[in-house]
Amino acid sequence: MSTLPTWDLDPIYPGCTSKEFQHDLRWVVASSQELEANLEDTKKDLKDMLSQYELILDHLENLDAYSAACLTTDTANEEYLRAVSQTEEASLMVQHMQVAFLNVLATRTEEIARRSAEGGDLAPYRFPLSELLEEQRHLMSEELEDLANDLGRSGTDAFSRLQEALSSSVSTAWDDQTEKTVIQLRNEAFNADRTIRRKAFEKELEIWKAYEVAFASSLNGVKGTTITLDARRGYDSPLDRSLMQSRINRPILDALITTLEKNLPLFRGYLQNKAKMLGLDSCAFYDLFAPVGKEALHFSYEEAHTFIVQQFSAFDPEMGKFADHAFKAHWIDPESRKGKVGGAYDTAFPLAKQSRILSNFDFTYNGVSTLAHELGHAWHDHVVLQKSNLLRSYPMTLAETASIFSEFLVFQGALEKSSSEGRLALIEHFLQDATQVCVDILSRYYFENAVFSERKRGDLSASAFSALMEDAQKKTYGDGLSIYHPYMWAVKGHYYSSDFSFYNYPYAFGQLFALGLWAQSKQAGTDFPASYKKLLGATGSLPAAEVAGLAGIDLTDVSFWQEAMGVIASYAEEFAHGVSD
């Protein structure tokens, strides 16, 4: 097995202490001060102000993405921690400027309406400017916003870093000779040996139990702060703020959640069939990712590279060429190692107009699918990075479209080349992922709703968090599982973000929206890649309903979501037939 590469960040910055990185830190601060000082100048053209504002955001995004990328590969590195802190300090100046900038925009609403109307020189900025004005209506005073941003560094942000550091580094004895981190234990969920899966699950729970007080204190701090600040900013609830950030409304969310709830029996039936395939009476949580089928799906990293490029190229040669470049230019850090965070993500660097991908590649089909997912994000970045900041910043709901669409491309390619036994294993893997995105995501949505409701009355104990988590899993998985995971609230770092609450339903949105687009692609034929790219390009400058409208989709129509769910149902039916044969 060849040695896995590490990513190359040198084209972004030579290092966190490099003159280039430090120069940009100083530039961000100085430019923010300069722009803020000139905001009251009525002779300053609005378009020029917007351009300077966007350039500052680009530089800060570059700094933030770079320092975070460094830290996530080595969470205990003091140099990286210092760089993150320096970036946060610079961001305080930007955040101060942003409050002043939004307040000035609010004094020029008539000009904005005129110039952003059809035919105006700011027409492309119609929605982003309206969004900024809506955000301004929810601002506290400048002094309170400054205080909230400053306290966030030592409050919610610190709690988030604590969760990330602990969950990436704590370990336990596996046997007399070996220790395993919690990330390595979680990777054993894909092991074909149920004895190993159960052992890893039990040891993982022991770790979360040992650190539950720290995790509970962190989550209480994050959710308590979120409740306070969202109320002071005039939001009815954290969910309402999340919906605004997601660029959807309640009717759209209700249509999505209704569809997920209606189809829970579909997923429970799949899990019961999986249990039969595994020779079990019922699945436990540690069986969710157990491989099914006689053909082992293993890939070297080089094979993953070739396979993904082939599938992307079959859909769109330009997309395939992009993925090939990402591999060859070392944009990906695939190795799992101590100190590196678990999971996977894509991050964009606007100044270099490049992306980087972190993963923990495990040489399975799941590892290939994850790479395809993140490369989908990177492709989305590639499409929008040619635009200015306010025209390319897309919400979480639409962020998952390209990633899940890309996963599905790889899935289709794998099906075409598989034997009957291999096909069953691939379909089961697809259903695994769909269950996570539809069922587990719904449980996380229920959990977070419950946490916000309970947290208003005071701090929750670790056991209370676990009880809410298990209750949410029982509501969604139902009799599809016999053993649940009460500590998923400690596992998932998304809960520890105060900037974006309900970091869950956007994944289900993306899954079904992408599958709905896939169904359309089968009818559109060779013209679809171009229209798909156009749709991705619009995700930063339009609300989700208008982006969907480009493809003739009504997001409040339950029938659209159910049609997308029908793609999953077709594979669940095929899997059921395979089990009974």
From TrEMBL:
<dbReference type="GO" id="GO:0046872">
    <property type="term" value="F:metal ion binding"/>
</dbReference>
<keyword id="KW-0479">Metal-binding</keyword>
<dbReference type="InterPro" id="IPR034006">
    <property type="entry name" value="M3B_PepF_2"/>
</dbReference>
<dbReference type="GO" id="GO:0006508">
    <property type="term" value="P:proteolysis"/>
</dbReference>
<dbReference type="GO" id="GO:0004222">
    <property type="term" value="F:metalloendopeptidase activity"/>
</dbReference>
<feature type="coiled-coil region">
    <location>
        <begin position="32"/>
        <end position="63"/>
    </location>
</feature>
<feature type="domain" description="Oligopeptidase F N-terminal">
    <location>
        <begin position="111"/>
        <end position="169"/>
    </location>
</feature>
<keyword id="KW-0482">Metalloprotease</keyword>
<dbReference type="InterPro" id="IPR001333">
    <property type="entry name" value="Peptidase_M32_Taq"/>
</dbReference>
<comment type="similarity">
    <text>Belongs to the peptidase M3 family.</text>
</comment>
<keyword id="KW-0862">Zinc</keyword>
<dbReference type="Pfam" id="PF01432">
    <property type="entry name" value="Peptidase_M3"/>
</dbReference>
<dbReference type="InterPro" id="IPR001567">
    <property type="entry name" value="Pept_M3A_M3B_dom"/>
</dbReference>
<dbReference type="InterPro" id="IPR011977">
    <property type="entry name" value="Pept_M3B_clade3"/>
</dbReference>
<keyword id="KW-0378">Hydrolase</keyword>
<dbReference type="InterPro" id="IPR042088">
    <property type="entry name" value="OligoPept_F_C"/>
</dbReference>
<dbReference type="Pfam" id="PF08439">
    <property type="entry name" value="Peptidase_M3_N"/>
</dbReference>
<dbReference type="InterPro" id="IPR013647">
    <property type="entry name" value="OligopepF_N_dom"/>
</dbReference>
<feature type="domain" description="Peptidase M3A/M3B catalytic">
    <location>
        <begin position="191"/>
        <end position="566"/>
    </location>
</feature>
<dbReference type="GO" id="GO:0004181">
    <property type="term" value="F:metallocarboxypeptidase activity"/>
</dbReference>
<keyword id="KW-0175">Coiled coil</keyword>
<keyword id="KW-0645">Protease</keyword>
<protein>
    <submittedName>
        <fullName>M3 family oligoendopeptidase</fullName>
    </submittedName>
</protein>
